[in-house]
Write a structure and sequence with these properties.
There is one protein chain. By secondary structure, this protein is an alpha/beta fold. It has a single domain (4-185), classed as Dihydrofolate Reductase, subunit A, CATH 3.40.430.10. The protein is 20% helix and 31% strand. The chain has helices at 30-39, 46-52, 68-71, 107-115, 128-134, and strands at residues 4-11, 15-17, 61-67, 85-89, 100-103, 121-126, 140-146, 154-155, 166-173, 179-185. An 8-stranded mixed beta sheet has the order 5-4-3-6-1-7-10-9. Strands 2-8 form a two-stranded antiparallel ribbon. The longest helix is centred in the N-terminal third of the chain and has 10 residues, at 30-39.
């Protein structure tokens, strides 16, 4: 069975973006970016891969699952991750190109079926509300914690959730202050 890995940048105080969806305060430079390029090259959007000259094969993921807000970030591409199977969870599929799949309605059973298919891990790229909906199916958390406090914004998980326990599996600190924290579901 495939896993769902919620790999996301977050602030020290647990926000994945400002209230308007702006995630630029979260560091994407230096040693932590280089490690991301080496270990998870498929998580970089097409324009970043092109700018950095990356054409590395997918190492961990073959599918990306994202909420509509994550998909439609300002300046976003119509097909941000062409190197992956792209699935957007939205009730408004207007303007989404054919190479990006749309999932709507009760997504939990659909994601459970997706996990049962053959393939690599599934990357939950974002949305706070989507993370809350899928929390019962998230197998691993991979948090890229930036040394910044946002004070408010979009939380890591937004919504009513039952206490789902995770256990730490690794921590890695970079000179730029970013800390990677990894957890797996208990």
């Amino acid at each position: 069975m495939r896993t769902i890995d919620y790999l996301v940048a977050t602030s020290i105080d647990g926000f994945i973006a400002r209230e308007d969806g702006d995630f630029t305060p979260l560091l994407t430079e230096g040693d932590s970016l280089q490690a991301l390029v080496e270990e998870f090259p498929e998580t970089l959007p097409a324009q970043a891969r092109s700018a950095l000259g990356i054409d590395a094969p997918n190492r961990v993921f073959d599918t990306v699952l994202m909420g509509a807000g994550t998909y439609r970030v300002p300046g976003g591409l119509p097909s941000p991750y062409p190197q992956l199977r792209q699935i957007v969870v939205t009730g408004s599929p207007d303007g989404i190109p054919e190479d990006v799949e749309v999932m709507s309605g009760d997504v939990l059973p659909q994601v459970r079926r997706l996990k049962e298919t053959d393939g690599r891990s599934i990357w939950l790229c974002g949305g706070s509300r989507l993370a809350a909906q899928l929390l019962p199916e998230i197998d691993r958390l991979f948090l890229k914690v930036s040394p910044v406090v946002l004070g408010r914004g979009l939380p890591l998980v937004a919504g009513d959730t039952a206490g789902v326990r995770f256990t730490p599996t690794g921590t890695r600190t970079f000179p730029n202050g970013v800390v990677w924290q990894q957890y797996r579901r208990v």
